[in-house]
Fold each of these.
Amino acid sequence: MLLHEGRLVVWVEQERLSRTKHAIDEPPAEALRACLEFAGIGPADLDCIALGSDHDALARWLCLDAEQRRKVLPFDRPERILPADLLDGGAPPPMVSVRHHLAHAASAFYPSGFDRAAGLVMDAMGEDASTSLAVCQNKELSLPVSYGVEESLGFFYEAAALYAGFSRLQTGKLMGLASYGTPGQPMPLEADRNQSGRLWTLRHNARTPGRTGINNREEDLLAFFGEQSFPHCRRETAEVMAYQDFAASAQAALEDAILTLAERAVSLAGSRDLTLSGGVALNCSANGVLSRSGLCDRLFVQPASTDSGVAYGAALVKARELYGTAFQPGEMRDAYWGLESTRTEIRAALDTSGLPYRELAAPALCEAAADVIARDGILAWHQGRAEIGPRSLGARSLLGNPARRATLARINRIKQREVWRPLAPSVLDTHFSSYFDGTPNPFMIVSALVRPEMRRRIPAVTHVDGTARPQLVTRSANPRFHDLLTHLHRKTGTPIAINTSLNGPEEPICLRPAETIRLFQSTEIDALALGDFLVEKPHG
């Protein structure tokens, strides 16, 4: 992403351009190029490039010698980040490293709008830490408490996902499954109430360094689960619902640990405003429990809180150092910081596809789109600048009617998702409290309770435990999406749409018109609102 004196200009994730989900080990050159083109500048105009990891410190923790470091951790090489054709013979700007958890903390505090806050960073690992407590005040950050990688909440939850038959990158599925179960199975994780610096109860590989230690500790966890938790075997993928109590127990242990850590962070900072970042902060259920706990007054969770967000945090840290009083990061009230498709690009893609389409003024487009949803159709909605982070928030979204449970099954079929997985609601800001009991959130990242009297009205977005992870939609943040929901409210009496990501299985969220059109053509999606253009498949 690109910042100017701390203010976010544009944010492009490499996976959206390369179309390889998570873009693991891919150089970010395409994303960097896109950011520079958006701003109309070149590499020579950059004061520095900030990296959200200290690779030398990471190499020391991994016990790598110089040659191993060169092979295993090439990610901070200038030639990998800035290809020669982009430099065009010029020298690369300075590249600076920021400690991983400091970058995470910065990525949440600076855009939070808080003057003073506690910070909680939780992920798998960053250099030699897995959880850090931050004190944030007057644009200064410190990390007075950190937990080592041997206490990792991220690795704990990843191992639980593996045991239940998912991959390390599918922890969200474990979270969804947990709602079906009842906690009570033993877990080798405990809240650090006595501030011992320990979270895991399995200790015999706690001092084993590097990658060997990570692998050994994962095997320790899997062995524990197999001995102590039903089912007493790992990865029975044909019988996933058998793991519901196991998933509930892992989720409950994680939530207990997070609540204790949050309480300590608030005490350290002397502030009841709290920020969350790191991959574990994407656990909407835990965030909802925390928001309802009374431990904090205000909660800000950065929408791209995974390692995508450390680039943002690293840039913020360096901007603070470079620009002093000119550093003005601004408050992040929405997630629409990606690229936008131009009218010319959209029309050209539609013409190439051969699809019949109508061009409509914005009010007519929103009303026609609402008609599709009101008659229980599925709508692909591709509008404006793309969202950052893993949630679709009304820019690249797949939308449906929440009043029919059958719509959930149909959307899950389109996306080839498991039938038991929940879908999320987007709700007009003026109606949030009528339907939900919880903390309003624009990023779909904090769960809330669906009010009992409303659960029959929105069954497609009410999870089995009576929760949902709603997105609050304001006119100021997304006027066109707000208008769509307003029209839908008038037509159906419900100010809510099902909102899930606009992508196929194992694909990144669609970014460009051609990707959205391909998804529309290859599935049973009923209509496509692409910019000012509407495409509808024949009814019946």
Amino acid sequence: MDDPSAGAPLTTAEYERLVDAADSYRTELLVALCGRVGLRPGEIARLRPGDLTRTSSDHDFLAVPGDDDTRDAYVPPAVAADVRKYAGAADIADDEPLFDVTPRRLQMLIAEVAERAADGDDDRLADVSTRDLRAHFAARLLGAGVDPRIVREAGGWSSLASLEPYADPPTRAEVAAALSDEAAAGSDASPTEPDRERPDRSGFAEAATALGAALEDVATRPAVEERACEALAATCGPAVICDERGEIRASTGVDDPDARAAIADVLDETALLDVEGGVRFVERDLTAEAWRADRTLASSAIRAGDRVHGLLCVVVGPSTSTSGLRRALVDAGRRVGWAVAATERKERLLSDTGVELVFEVDAGSFFASASRALDCRLELDGLVPMADQSLLCFVAAREVSVDALLDRAAASNGIADVRLICDAGERAQLEFVVRSDAPIAEIVRRGGAVESVTAADGVARVAAVFPTQTDVRTLVEDVTAAHPGVSFRAKREAVRRESPDDVHRTVEHELTDKQRVTLRAAYFAGYFEWPRGSTAEELAGSMGVSAPTLHNHLRKAQQKVFTALFDSSS
């Protein structure tokens, strides 16, 4: 049974701050499963994609196993869509764990989100736990008038008394309304099913589902922006998407040139790009004939993690539900952001050319400081981005005491874990888990495919390839501002290395992200060498997955690559 929360349940605004602080699609889904579905960490750890089923009336439920029996947990449409999308993108089978980590690790992930969301040490969000998210789940539904029996069943509380701490005492007006003759006459009405928020007559509840469907198979950023505007115009109002500079890139329902110019003026004059998170409302006359004087422009950042890709805006009338619109826009901004990030990654993989940027790091880098302290040279053999935005780095170390390097890494705040793969005397190979706040992780997060990293004499030199259309000036300013120890050194055109066409095409197109990451990590970890540099168990531990899961993705990846190699040569 859940203990009563010591404080008041999270407000909707506080919950949204937590969602905004999620640094990956995976973490955002975890927050939603706690705060919108009411699951406990132990239940989430056992969750499999196959546990999610849809009824004949198009409602989604999760079969949640308990100590005595299994309960059905209602899943709002947007969360159900996210579960299916995440499972598909991560190549997770119906009978595999959705997260494949311990309940304790899930609690730690929520604690990390809370720490990022908190504004100062005295902000109560800093101490938010999975229990607080469940309290928010209960308080939100009870406050919306959902029958407590339904809330108890949906969240798996042992009794109605368990919900008492989350329910506000009724006012006299509410008692009178509930017990009056007029209310009694309608008492035969069936209780409301729990949903994402209280009944939404504005149509915003459909926005997430429509947007998710619209973005399912898009391959380019222009297509993402165009489809997003179309979906939002159908559910929210005329929609506009602007780039990072506030220039309009796509729109639906805003065809008049004067109206587009008026919106651009509003965006420019109100500096909406300077607003961190949330939604900005501009109540001002859009002077073009296409709009009445009482229209309002609402705007939210398009973001993936901590990277902003632009602004998403809708034009609405005076009767629009502000809270409903706010939720819809914040959610839409994240969805469009992740879709834009995915298309940029795909474009970077398939492009024959790009722009190579070279940075130097003399402070804040473990590799730079270690090269100076130990008088050694470190070189990156390969790098694998992980789901939590940390990096699995395989590094060759020359002319160094391996024990001294291991000890220094173990004591470093920038290194989450380290492992010796092999020591051949003059050259040793090690595996480092670099935390997500490191300079090199920042470069990867902003779309860079790291080609090389060398560290010597206290300076680390990083070369990374970005898509040709990258705004280099803005990117360099953002990276150097986020990490004062980083300086920009060079820019040059990059050409993709040649490789066999069929195998290359298979790796880029046929392998799932999880298969590609696993194959790459196994290669750089020496898994395919004889004798092996890493066992499957060691590699699985470094990647945070189980050994059977690693074997599954590795075998599937090998089969696809070998099929392309031998079929093309036969």
